[in-house]
């Protein structure tokens, strides 16, 4: 069994390296299985995009897959994690006619990352936006918790439907991978900001890579006031979200979440597990929720 898994991994590496030798054409990116959405609901997506080139796919190639998925699923707004300047440049170039965005790099490292929020700019006006750092000094740029491995941010956008005037807040984040204590503290800081944003009376959606599972202290903190869209959806997937480019075959690694405020109903939750031409967008699957505000 171990030998078989090694062989599968080598085959995947060889295929990915072959794919990296040429850029894929848009004609080859056929997205299938996109669920229908009611006119009354809004579609939300969260996707960790994997910041760097690696043996399983370059950013240039994997971004083509993600752009194809966005165009096929047509989310009202979506959050991305690990979005480097390269990723943001590509997404703005490819999706800029359809989507506006709010973005802030979390630090000033050689490879900074953003947890950006994108929104349909022909449907929504951007009412308010901002970023906090998940630290003891949330308003201080590039600050971090002492117990955290890296500076982490939460970025939000308040969106107003141009036709109906209805508003909602989309906040997006990526919690630390250093340990449960750091993630729980960051969730507490995030919840303080969420409480502030909820004072507007707008429904709120929180997306992100939370680097932890349903049994964690972080999850307990996040669900004190928010609901897991996956668990309240009328139709739901229960698959993993972290998959290591398809190499994880056992265990449940659902560490990416869409949380919503109470009173929001969810028609459908879906793990976006498509691969195209043998390549994945990331080592995480994307997730989608169709939500009624």
Q: Your description of this structure?
A:
The protein is α+β, with helices and mostly antiparallel strands and 293 residues long. It has a single domain (2-29, 40-292), classed as 4-Layer Sandwich (Deoxyribonuclease I, Chain A). It has 6 helices and 13 strands. The strands form 2 sheets. The protein has a 7-stranded mixed β-sheet. A hairpin with a 5-residue loop joins β6 and β7. α2 (59-73) crosses α3 (85-95). The radius of gyration is 18 Å and the shape is globular. The N and C termini lie far apart (48 Å). Residues 4-8 and 10-23 have low confidence and may be disordered.
Major sheet summary line: 7 strands, mixed
**CATH homology superfamily:** Endonuclease/exonuclease/phosphatase
Q: What topology, given as strand order, has the largest sheet?
A: 3-4-2-1-13-12-10
Residue stretches low in confidence (pLDDT < 50, at least 5 long) are 4-8, 10-23
Structural class: alpha+beta
The number of domains: 1
Q: What is the averaged pLDDT score?
A: 91
Strand content: 25-35%
- Give the CATH topology: Deoxyribonuclease I, Chain A
Helix content: 25-40%
For the terminal residues, how far apart are their CA atoms?
48 Å
Main CATH class: Alpha Beta
Instruction: Based on Cα principal axes, name the global outline.
Output: globular
| DSSP E strands, number | 13
Order of helices and strands: HEHEHEEEEEHEHEHEEEE
Rg (C-alpha, Å): 18 Å
CATH architecture: 4-Layer Sandwich
Please, how many helices? 6
